[in-house]
Backbone:
């Protein structure tokens, strides 16, 4: 028993879960010095989907974000989510990429690496563990929590043993779908802390089912050392439970305080309350508790993806069928935890099975790769009848998937050429070739707002100019190409300088 560390997730998982990962760096930075003085155990600020989204949608350099965040956190460790051999991408990368990524991440300001594998295959964690250790970072070995006939206290206890054996500095139970019941949280923590009393243990829960606050309380009383929370404007629903709620609740427990004063969170909450309003168009429609997840086990973000796929086909009414089929596909494929990328693989196959009316009549490349073992070993061996449907005559592999990958960095350097100004640029290109190239070309051209934004703002100003000219009885002449008059462009330039 003792002080419970709080990891604040607002600027990573909080906005990833609720605002489609769209929060810009400029909206994070003003709060950081205040957050640094609060007394958090760490601040999660990088990894997960933020790396991809920064380049793809925001035209931001994720490495620059890390440097800017680190420069403002003088007292609080930075923390990130790393997908093992997938790094921050969606496929396995060669070992040279993973090792270089870990080294550069530490150099740019990352302290704690929460490292997980979607299948809990520890072979896929080996290189990332090595890379972080070599660079001097903190390795947090992760157990992806899920429920199935083969996921038990015993199996998770064995997984924890292996992670500690591999050199994990701390452990985390990652409950990405809100499935961890209070009773199971207590049992798991009791087992793992009983086996490894000197290894710090953290819990990461989503509030989807309404379980998380209760799970945290029983876990802390069973000996958990740290929990993940999000400041209240970015908490609840598919995000984490509110920081203020847990600080207040644990503050009344003489044995398990957090060391954080509730009053010190007020300004941060007020600030992010204002920030959230800026991103209203990216709001998730999955607000509040969704008890259905306890039955279908599909994380909130994955449901949004399934709805999108069905809507594209005009079949949104079949969501219920897809959720039921999703459970069957997951069982067929050996009960993978539903976390990136296995959640997308299982979900897409379930959609195909429902829409085609024939199970595995059409099989995605990713489903085939999962069944073949290219993502790693599943918790339960896949039955031969399913393998025959999915793979045909293609054999499964039984070795570490990355053993088949040739080094990638040197060829990537040649491909991207002088667009890459730093080793970090090369890593960005390896993991996300098209978005990274687009971003690097945009940066080379001088940066500035996206073309669509320029067109929209200039168009709006042109309309305003014409309206004002008409009111004065003076015609407003458009430019030769039909775009806005020069005055609008000049005004737009002044706006950019003001920013």
Residues:
């Amino acid at each position: 028993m003792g002080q419970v560390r709080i990891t604040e997730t607002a600027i990573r998982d909080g906005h990833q879960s609720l605002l489609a990962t769209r929060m810009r760096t400029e909206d994070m930075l003003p709060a950081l010095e205040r957050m640094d003085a609060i007394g958090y155990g760490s601040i999660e600020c990088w990894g997960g989907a933020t790396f991809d989204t920064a380049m793809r949608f925001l035209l931001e350099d994720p490495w620059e974000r890390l440097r800017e965040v680190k420069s403002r956190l003088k007292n609080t460790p930075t923390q990130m989510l790393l997908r093992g051999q997938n790094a921050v991408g969606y496929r396995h990368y060669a070992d040279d990429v993973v090792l270089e990524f870990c080294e550069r991440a530490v150099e740019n300001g990352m302290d704690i690496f929460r490292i997980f594998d979607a299948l809990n295959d520890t072979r896929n964690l080996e290189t990332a563990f090595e890379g972080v250790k070599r660079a001097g970072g903190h390795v947090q070995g992760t157990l992806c929590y899920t429920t199935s006939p083969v996921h038990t206290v015993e199996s998770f206890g064995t997984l924890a043993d292996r992670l500690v054996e591999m050199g994990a500095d701390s452990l985390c139970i990652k409950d990405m779908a809100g499935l961890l019941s209070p009773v199971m949280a207590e049992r798991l923590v009791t087992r793992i802390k009983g086996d490894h009393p000197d290894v710090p243990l953290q819990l990461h829960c989503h509030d989807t089912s309404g379980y998380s606050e209760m799970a945290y309380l029983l876990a802390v009383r069973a000996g958990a050392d740290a929990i993940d929370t999000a400041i209240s404007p970015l908490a609840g629903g598919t995000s984490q439970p509110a920081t203020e709620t847990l600080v207040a609740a644990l503050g009344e427990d003489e044995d398990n305080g957090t060391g954080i004063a509730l009053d010190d969170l007020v300004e941060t909450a007020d600030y992010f309350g204002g920030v959230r309003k800026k991103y209203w168009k990216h709001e998730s429609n999955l607000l509040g508790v969704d008890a259905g997840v306890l039955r279908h086990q599909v994380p909130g973000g994955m449901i949004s993806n399934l709805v999108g796929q069905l809507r594209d086909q005009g079949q949104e009414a079949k969501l219920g069928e897809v959720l039921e089929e999703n459970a069957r596909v997951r069982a067929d494929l050996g009960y993978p935890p539903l976390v990136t990328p296995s959640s997308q693989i299982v979900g897409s196959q379930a959609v195909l099975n429902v829409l085609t009316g024939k199970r595995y009549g059409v099989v995605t490349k990713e489903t085939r790769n999962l069944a073949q073992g290219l993502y790693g070993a599943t918790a339960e061996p896949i039955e031969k009848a399913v393998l025959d449907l999915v793979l045909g005559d293609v054999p499964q592999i039984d070795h570490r998937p990355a053993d088949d990958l040739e080094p990638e960095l040197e060829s990537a350097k040649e491909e991207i050429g002088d667009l890459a100004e730093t080793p970090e640029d090369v890593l960005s290109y390896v993991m996300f070739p098209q978005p990274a190239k687009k971003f690097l070309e945009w940066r080379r051209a001088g940066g500035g707002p996206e073309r669509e934004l320029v067109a929209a703002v200039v168009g709006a100003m042109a309309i305003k100019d014409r309206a004002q000219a008409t009111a004065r009885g003076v015609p407003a002449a458009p430019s030769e190409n039909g775009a806005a008059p020069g005055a609008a462009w000049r005004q737009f330039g002044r706006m950019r300088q003001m920013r």
User: Anything to note?
Assistant: The chain has 22 helices and eight strands. Residues 451-460, 475-499 have pLDDT under 50 and may be disordered.
